[in-house]
Amino acid sequence: MDHHRVSAHRDAHLSSRTGVVPFVALLLLQRRPVAGRALLVTGSGCPGHSLCRSNVQEQTRRQVALLNATAQDLFSLYLKCQGEPFSSESDKLCNPSGVFFPAFRVNRTSEKEVMVAMYKLFAFLNASLGNITRDQEELNPTAKELLDRLHNTTKTTRGLISNLTCLLCKNYNIFQVDVSYGESSKGKSAFKKKQQGCQVLRKYVQVIAQAARVLLPHLSPP
Q1: How would you write 90-122 as a 3-class SS string?
Q2: Quick one: which of 173, 45, 179, 41 has its CA closest to 103?
Q3: 87-127 pLDDT, tens digit each
Q4: d(CA 187, CA 144)
Q5: pLDDT tops 50 at residue 6
Q6: How many beta carbons lie within 10 A of that of residue 218, not counting itself?
């Protein structure tokens, strides 16, 4: 199989696709909301791990901690900028019960399993943030603080994905991971776009706290 081909995922944000996507392709696609799955593959051709910084593990730990520390503030600011009825009916409108997020078990003990699960989560999150940011640039173009927060969170997430890529390649020779991306909001009404964003961000607040509890012990200095 040609691991560098990504044509199978072209326009994948419009429909569910299946295929193997290498890390390099995922980093190129990470701002495009797509839905698809790829098999976890290991092999001898893991690219780029020699480019990992010497402090990649500590940097990864700080990025996870930062995302966890700022998630609630991002959600609160998002609600404020959407206006009514989101400000007063957030419990109803932003209920995340039906929102898909990559599942992971909190009792994972294998560091390899944890790292793979975290890669899936943050790849999904990065695409979702890109979707939300695009919508807010259209719906709230003057909400500078919110847009800055979204861009900064996306930047941190992108850096985290890069570091997880290095750790998976370097430590486990894994260079392809089964990933799923969320539903695109393209073509939806302004209200539905706002609602999808608040549902995803509320779920993010819950999931990032759980992810930090699982991942941070595996990134702590020996």
Answers
A1: HHHHCCCCCCCCCCCCCCCCCHHHHHHHHHHHH
A2: 179
A3: 889 999 999 888 888 876 666 567 888 888 889 999 999 99
A4: 24
A5: no
A6: 19
